[in-house]
């Protein structure tokens, strides 16, 4: 069995219902994420928290030092769990995430968090491209409705399309219940 690491992407306060960019289903996703994190801690699986932070104090999201940029309490880091600060969509870009994974001997990753169609997508694809087999726990991720060219796509469909694309060619996709039952 390969040495696994859990990557928790951007479960930050700005995504909560009272935040600057509320995501559909974020509270349920964060609750599932908390269960997965608790399981990882119980099994001594390293947990890597990723937090997006904007450098501009007046940034529309995740302004440095703002309450919205903080990781949600229910999934907050514990002990010496690393927190990787990122400024780009891809958690590997200009961060030490790969170094952290390699330092911990990680050979495969489980990814949870937000947003399914952006930062989760970028992290999963980069991880796989770097040689880390990945699993996404779909109901521990959240996104929002998207609009393009006058067409609004509901969050559930955005999320389903991302998970289908992952499962089609990039990684395993599972539910919280199935993931925890297999551990």
Automatic annotation (TrEMBL):
Pfam families in the cross-refs: Isochorismatase
Molecular function as annotated in GO: hydrolase activity
Span of the signal peptide: none
Boundaries of every Isochorismatase-like domain copy: 5-147
Domain of life: Bacteria
Keywords: Hydrolase
InterPro entries tied to this protein: Isochorismatase-like_dom, Isochorismatase-like_hydrls, Isochorismatase-like_sf
Ion transport in keyword set: no
UniProt KW Hydrolase keyword: yes
PANTHER family according to UniProt: ISOCHORISMATASE HYDROLASE (PTHR43540:SF1), PEROXYUREIDOACRYLATE/UREIDOACRYLATE AMIDOHYDROLASE-RELATED (PTHR43540)
Protein name: Isochorismatase
Top-level taxonomy: Bacteria, Pseudomonadati, Pseudomonadota, Gammaproteobacteria, Pseudomonadales
